[in-house]
Design a protein that fits this description.
Blueprint: E1 7-12, E2 15-20, E3 26-30, E4 39-40, E5 51-56, E6 59-64, E7 70-73, E8 76-77, E9 89-90, E10 96-101, E11 112-117
Parallel strand pairs: 3-4
Antiparallel strand pairs: 1-2, 1-11, 3-5, 5-6, 6-9, 7-8, 7-10, 10-11
């Protein structure tokens, strides 16, 4: 068993990968890494710069970059806030995000599933 921390368990194309978030405060996610150290996904339905995981004062958030295909958070599409601006979503242990999903019920092989956990992996 690994150490306790903040992790993303990523399922893409039938493969599972785990990322420990604690080594950085900002993690861009998409098909292209913004700074060479982001989370690179290969699904064609994920935008080049899909979103960002960020730590703000000890709490992890996900910020959607208004990508072409939706980000689904715990079964609901992330919607824009006031003035159309995207607002960060506070993450809690067990939250599930679907990146590149065409709808809330999307379950095809192009959708990337990400589970946020605060437990040992």
């Amino acid at each position: 068993m690994g150490s306790t921390g903040n992790y993303l368990i990523i399922q893409e194309n039938g493969k599972e990968n785990t990322v420990c978030l604690d080594s950085r405060s900002v993690w861009p996610v998409g098909r292209v890494s913004i700074d060479g150290e982001g989370i690179v996904l290969r699904s064609p339905t994920v935008s080049r710069q899909h979103g960002v995981f960020m730590n703000i004062m000890g709490t992890w958030y996900y910020y959607d970059k208004k990508c072409t295909n939706a980000t689904i958070y715990n079964g609901r599409k992330i919607k824009p806030g006031i003035g159309g601006r995207t607002r960060p979503v506070m993450l809690h242990d067990g939250d599930v995000l679907m990146l590149g999903a065409r709808s809330e019920s999307s379950n095809d092989d192009k959708t990337v599933w990400i589970k946020y956990t605060e437990k040992a992996v």
